[in-house]
Automatic annotation (TrEMBL):
GO terms for molecular function: ATP binding; transmembrane receptor protein tyrosine kinase activity. SUPFAM superfamilies: Galactose-binding domain-like, Protein kinase-like (PK-like). It is found in: Cell membrane; Cell projection, Axon; Perikaryon. It comes from the Eukaryota. This is Protein kinase domain-containing protein. PROSITE patterns: FA58C_1 (PS01285), FA58C_2 (PS01286), FA58C_3 (PS50022), PROTEIN_KINASE_DOM (PS50011).
Length: 769
């Protein structure tokens, strides 16, 4: 370990506004002057390609009939868009729109619109401004251009302008986008969310709803740290409440926060400046990764602050020189010993080796047939829908005053599944949206997706409410898995309430059902976070007068999905009872949070990844035996685990493994670890569990350095699952390294049989190790 320790290098810059935010001269990006070529401008549909196709949507120009007009009229349910592909990542600061003038013949304009955008690796993200608004006000006549600035700015490669209207009307528009090229951070993620304090909310309030997660399930996106706005006022001042500071309390983070920054390409870094408030940073460690996976320790730069700096009540910048380190991902660990740590912006100074590409000369925007053809291709491409699963999980904000009834009331079923064509897939619609009587546009602050005119292929379940719309899913929207189908209320009343005996007949096997203890939360002392799921947070916890346990709660108490996931897990764990290789449910508290056995060394994947040398095969086999022993037991008592992955295998200090988080078939199965029938038909059984088990063993046998099907994208995995089920020949299966004995290898390979009947039972696999 040759970590470089660059000592005590801190510059405290006392004057305000010293942070060099991206120099962006907000220039027009080329709709009007033709730098953006016709092939880069597409649309969801057009009334007539020649006269009002997207190529005519250039601001201040009068080509053909003078604007882009979608095929159908616009109403509150439509999803018609003009799409501009900028080819490279840009910082987009504003959009300017104009109606259709057409030498005096036009009458159409867009009075309101929304923005969707996309950048490398992301799906379409609905834009929300700093105050959470989705709707942008547009034009009021056919000629006057109206410019709307984005605060925060958008970092994207592609942008869609989506005209909307409360009343049904014809809409046409011309547009320009403003901004500049962006070479900075394209995603960041923090393990620890910011904290709340009384009425102050120090979480990352403008963090994008990107639906993107790191491999460990942490949200990726952009937010307060990269929005270009450096707050000058104190985080506690009333007027700074408009989303400008992220604050972490020592109590919630144990005085250590981790932020991962991702760039599009490899950068050569000069320095990083953290704009903070009033606190003393004990130490900052910066570590770099060139391939996005390995973070060589020798690349570490550590820096700490001089004791004497006097800035307890002001904003100041903390600069860390980065000595021309090279990397594509940068992880920063900040250690602090004060009660709070605040950040408003993090800014890297860096260069890329690639010279910035020369902008092409303007093309003649008069559109020949070929360019129109390209436009049509684009539209056709965008409207492909087949075998797609698409789930919108929505956290519906609700407050219940009655605390006791809370768990129960949150459990209202709010999701349904619909199928498209003959290929099963999943759509989710909230079905119990509270009608506030304000009309559909009041939904604008929530994330929703409009439905294209071409959605006649969708057989939407009659239960879906009209105020929610579904967009024909694209592959990039793909989100696995489908939502719960079982009746959670039943599960809940059986297992969480104390009178579990009355209804317990409806489960096939009740062998393992145990009563669960209740601990008042006042008897628990929560420590720092030790793990995190999509909805859940796991913390160290000490029961007063007792031992260390793990406390699992949901991140957002108002989120019904998280609540349901937790309640299902309680139900499952109660069925499981005690087994030496299953992390035991010890109790619940009055908020239905889980109090679980504490398993000292944490997830096996992190353990294996962190172990410096290759592990012994014997050790791996021991782990496999432990997992199979637990899974054999689950198979015997009729419990389907549903999402076994290395992340759900914990390692005790005795180096024995315990599986955790059985949640049944209804929550967050992991695409890469799931059997084809789970992916395609949503069928979860012990036979799909053994597939996941084999995938888990496969990953562990590569020391968790690579994920299953690393080279396949999500959509390719779904294609592969379809192909496997159809018995096609051109399919991919995971191959095990030859480290197991022969009979074991054969059984492991059988676990990946397309026909689930051909897969072995767990007991057989267990005995073969
Ligand atoms: C408007 O005038 C221009 C220039 O005379 C012409 O090229 C264009 O076709 C006209 N547009 C309409 C809608 O008449
Ligand atoms: C963007 O990409 C398209 C398709 O590859 C190309 O036709 C166009 O010229 C590119 N535009 C710029 C500005 O590079
Ligand atoms: C956000 O959008 C709304 C509606 O378009 C607007 O009234 C508000 O000023 C915007 N807020 C910011 C910070 O731009
Ligand atoms: C809120 O945020 C904006 C940046 O968008 C900033 O200009 C403004 O000064 C902040 N404070 C108030 C009180 O609006
Ligand atoms: C810090 O600054 C404040 C006001 O600026 C001053 O009153 C105080 O004496 C300073 N403390 C030290 C240790 O310099
Ligand atoms: C990074 O940039 C510096 C200064 O331009 C240069 O001297 C150094 O060679 C670069 N490092 C790499 C690995 O390109």
């Amino acid at each position: 370990m040759q970590s470089v320790y660059s000592v005590l290098l801190v510059s405290w810059i006392s004057c305000v506004q010293t942070l060099r935010i991206e120099q962006c001269n907000d220039e027009a990006l080329g709709m009007e002057n033709g730098l953006i070529s016709d092939s880069q401008i597409t649309s969801s549909s057009t009334f007539d390609k020649q006269s009002v196709g997207p190529q005519n949507a250039r601001l201040h120009t009068e080509f053909a009939s003078g604007a882009w007009c979608p095929k159908s009229q616009i109403n509150s349910k439509s999803y018609e868009y003009l799409q501009i592909n900028l080819n490279q990542t840009h910082l987009i600061t504003a959009v300017e729109t104009q109606g259709r003038y057409g030498n005096g013949t036009g009458r159409e304009f867009a009075s309101e619109y929304m923005i969707d955008y996309m950048r490398t690796g992301s799906q379409w993200i609905r834009y929300r401004n700093r105050t959470g608004h989705v709707m942008m006000s547009g034009n009021f006549d056919t000629t006057t251009p109206v410019i709307r600035e984005f605060d925060p700015p958008i970092i994207a490669q592609k942008i869609r302008i989506i005209p909307t209207s409360k009343a049904t009307r014809t809409v046409c528009l011309r547009a320009e986008v403003h901004g500049c090229k962006h070479q900075g951070v394209i995603y960041y993620s923090t393990v620890q969310d910011g904290s709340r304090q009384e009425n102050l909310d120090f979480r990352d309030l403008i963090f994008e709803d990107s639906q993107m997660f790191t491999e460990s399930g942490i949200k990726r996106g952009l937010g307060l740290l990269t929005d270009g706005y450096v707050a000058q006022s104190s985080p506690y001042e009333e007027d700074s409440k408009n989303a400008s500071w992220i604050g972490w309390s020592k109590a919630n983070t144990d005085g250590s926060i981790n932020i991962l920054f991702e760039f599009e390409e490899i950068h050569n870094f000069t320095d990083v400046v953290l704009a903070t408030f009033g606190n003393r940073i004990d130490q900052i460690d910066v570590i770099f990764s060139q391939d996005g996976k390995a973070y060589p320790l020798y690349s570490t730069i550590s820096s700490s602050e001089r004791q004497t700096a006097n800035h307890t009540s002001r904003r100041y910048d903390f600069r860390v020189p980065l000595h021309n380190r090279i990397g594509k991902k940068v992880r920063i660990t900040i250690k602090f010993s004060t009660d709070w740590m605040f950040l408003t912006e993090v800014h890297f100074t860096s260069t890329t080796n690639k010279p910035s590409p020369v902008i092409k000369t303007a093309t003649n925007p008069d559109s020949p047939a070929i360019q129109q053809f390209l436009v049509v291709c684009g539209i056709v491409f965008l409207t492909i829908f087949s075998c797609v699963a698409y789930c919108i999980t929505l956290c519906i904000r609700r407050r219940q005053n009655n605390n006791e009834k809370k768990c129960e009331q949150i459990l209202k079923k709010d999701l349904i599944i619909t199928h498209m064509g003959n290929k099963p897939s999943c759509h989710v619609f909230p079905s119990n949206i509270k009608n506030t009587g304000k009309g559909p546009f009041e939904m604008a602050n929530d994330i929703y997706y409009a439905r294209s005119q071409k959605s006649t292929l969708l057989s939407v379940s009659s239960k879906s409410t009209s105020s929610y719309r579904n967009l024909p899913p694209t592959w990039s929207d793909f989100n696995f898995p489908p939502p719960p189908e079982m009746n959670e209320e039943q599960v809940y009343s059986q297992h969480v309430s104390t009178e579990s005996s009355s209804k317990s007949g409806s489960f096939k096997s009740n062998k393992g059902v145990t009563e669960v203890k209740k601990y008042p939360s006042s008897s628990l002392m929560l420590g720092h976070a030790i793990g995190e799921g999509k909805f859940t947070l796991i913390r160290e916890c000490v029961v007063f007068g007792g031992s260390k346990v793990a406390h699992k709660s949901i991140k957002d108490v108002d989120c019904p999905h998280g609540r349901r996931a937790l309640n299902d897990e309680i139900a499952m764990l109660m069925k499981c009872g005690k087994h030496p290789n299953i992390a035991e449910l010890l109790a619940v508290d009055e908020h239905c949070n889980l109090i679980l056995e504490f398993v000292e060394l944490g997830s096996i994947n992190l353990f294996l990844q962190a172990s410096p040398s290759p592990f012994e095969v014997d050790f791996l086999i021991l782990i496999c035996k432990d997992i199979c022993s637990a899974m054999t037991y689950l198979e015997q008592i009729g419990v389907v685990h549903g999402h076994l992955t290395p992340n759900n295998v914990l390692l005790g200090s005795d180096l024995h493994a315990k599986i955790c988080s059985p949640r049944g078939p209804s929550h967050h199965a992991q695409l890469r670890y799931s059997a084809p029938e789970c992916i395609v038909h949503n069928e979860f059984t012990h036979k799909s569990d053994i597939w996941s088990c084999a995938a888990t063993i496969w990953e562990m046998s590569y020391q968790c350095q690579t994920r299953p099907y690393e080279s396949l994208t999500n959509e390719q995995i779904v294609d592969n699952a379809c192909a496997l089920l159809e018995g096609k020949s051109d399919t991919e299966l995971l191959e095990f390294p030859p480290i197991f004995n022969k009979s074991c290898m054969i059984l492991l390979e059988q676990c990946f049989a397309s026909n689930r009947q051909d897969r072995p039972v767990f007991e057989k696999l267990w005995k073969s190790f």
